[in-house]
């Protein structure tokens, strides 16, 4: 299976004062850092994909991933929607997976067209009265049919610390609505339809015990001390909602593990992660910490790009910009042509046989060919396609690169 690719030709040139020798000069330092990671991983997320998958192969029932599949597969026939409650950073990875790998109009499809996978909504990021009221109204309206499942919904609440005010308030409101909607069946169904992901002995954990929740997922201890919720995307924080959407979580973890293998075994010259870190470090050092901006050429990846931008959010003063284009080689749908029409007032018949993919690639090239005074140094990350395997690569590559950049800045 293909890996992501990284192209820095748009910033390594005389035009921007950056030469290959400058990035190559970091090879020894970065390779040394890689060796340290291999022997004594300092980042707790690094081996999480392999460890989680190995635990699943050893015990497909009671392992964390096995429990994720048990909950997701066990609810598909009984619910038609799920409300994921959590702050923006906690749920951003879930939104990235949904937007990249589900039908973009998933929530609008009939239950049959969704393969009985639930509609998914989000709450608990802020104290927003109108958004909360509107979602309560929508969720209580039920699905698009009259079956019992289409009148029933679930809650996944994600709160690593277990006492985030916005999350706690939203949870109280939606649990109340869910309990009322279940009527006389509340005692039987509420413990099954409320699935918390939190830390042991937190307020949320104690609430789950009081309700008698059948499944409570813990934030992995090795990920519990991370200051950034975005690093938990490949734990149950991201995997449980993804599994409820029917996404291939095994491929997601395999993609992350593939990046680990590539990072460890590939020479510096061809190492996707090390070259990216080197280029961005040199650009930052020699061009005054430019603001990194992402230009996404495929709608499905916009939220995945926003997740990475949040992960890399700078706190230092910046000067200028570094644009990272995100492109995709292979479309998932049959390619559409512009089409020819007897009404050609828009003069598009001349390109009527061209595909939207061709026009997209021409636009990317035009953006790179702008005059120097109207453009900025650029890099390009190329997705071979958009699926869970490649998205797992994206998450893991971004997290490793973020951690390495931090370590490299301290060393240099």
Automatic annotation (TrEMBL):
Transmembrane residue ranges: none
Gene Ontology CC terms: cytosol
GO biological process: gluconeogenesis; glucose 6-phosphate metabolic process; glycolytic process
Keyword Isomerase: yes
EC numbers: 5.3.1.9
Keyword terms: Gluconeogenesis, Glycolysis, Isomerase
Enzyme class: isomerase
Molecular function per GO: carbohydrate derivative binding; glucose-6-phosphate isomerase activity; monosaccharide binding
PANTHER family per the UniProt record, alphabetical: GLUCOSE-6-PHOSPHATE ISOMERASE (PTHR11469)
Name of the protein described by the UniProt record: Glucose-6-phosphate isomerase
Gene that produces this protein: pgi_2
